Amino acid sequence: MKKAQIFGAIIASFFLSFGLTEVFNPVVHADSSKEIVFWNPFTGPDGTSMQKLVNEYNKTNPEYKVKNVSLTEADMYSKIPTIVNSKKGIPDLQIVHVERIKDYVNNGLLDNYNPYLDDFSDINKSNYVPEAWNNGAYKGKRYGVPLDIHTTFMYYNKALVKKYAPHALDDNIVTFDEIKAAGEKSQKDGITGLGLTWWKPNFLSLYGQLGGQLTKDGKNPNLNNQTSRKVLQIYKGLYDKKITSQDGQDPMQLFLTNKEIFFPEGIWMNNQIKESDVKYGVTNAAQLSDDPDKMVNWSSSHQFVLLKQPKRDKAKTEATLKFLSWVRTNSLEWAKAGQNPATLAITKDKEYRKMQQSFLLTNKTEQESLKIFNYRYNGYLADYLDRYAYDSVFGKTSISSYLNKLQNTVQDEVDAQMTD
């Protein structure tokens, strides 16, 4: 180790020993008493969009300006419990994924908005996408105000659809049967029918279509069942017939090089795909049924929350809600990042309505297809699905073993938590 590195480690150890971590984390504090410190996990292009949005707000010359602090998602989530429990340097406003709210409330990490909402009548259920708004409440109190509702849908190659599935998009719903038929035709030309992308939303979307529930009692997981087995069997059947991308292949590269017909991914990837030469369109996630009332499009939501403070500053909190109220009617910049803002006001914006992801909000049936799988212990489920992903589909383990381990892993984590 170089001398400079050793010296740095010694200095860091010294400060950590005396609890002086604030020296190494200057983003915690406001630059003045009239500043709202806003933490969020937007560090990529979406971080640039959020900074632009904050800049626009600050140009309105509010009494309290917003200080935008973007942290990597893993770093941010690891800091939250520590900083709340330390009762020092707590940000005034925080973005979290909606699925974390229940667990955060039960662990005493959040304050609720209820004492302030009477003075902000525009922050109410009639002004937001219902699925995003409803999931921001817990035990009769409002803990989250939604920024967006982000969804995994499906990109498709226009030329390949015309050649191998000419009528699949007549109703804007592509079924698994239509994907199978298209993939069987395209194999001889070396074209993949369906990309196997982020497993969690793909699994949950199909699980939801089949009527699956993540829990029956709100606590214990309900994951090792016939519904989960059917999800895995459907994907494994497509994989074994080489309808899908194969283990070791990059589904994104296949799509961008015109070697893949259908590519399920998040709406947030749209701006990246736009930069390629591929001629593409967007539609709903793959569905079992062509009945629009049975559609399920996996979704989540970034929500503004108030981390618990030992003594909340009423004036600053009210100023924070003024910012949230402003965001509700000024979300176009966030839509430009490839997101769907959760405010219904955006659906009236002409520029937004021209954006490809807008169909999910401007059409009522589409909007009702958006489903947030808001299980309190979603994090443990997500960890397993992200870690072991397509192992049973690829034949690295049996379906029975995969589901048994999934159930037991999540159950063990739940049991390790303190009882409510």
TrEMBL record:
Q: Which Pfam families match?
A: SBP_bac_8 (PF13416)
Q: Which organism is it from?
A: Weissella jogaejeotgali
Q: What is this protein called?
A: ABC transporter, sugar binding protein
Q: Which domain of life is it from?
A: Bacteria
Q: Which residues form the signal peptide?
A: none
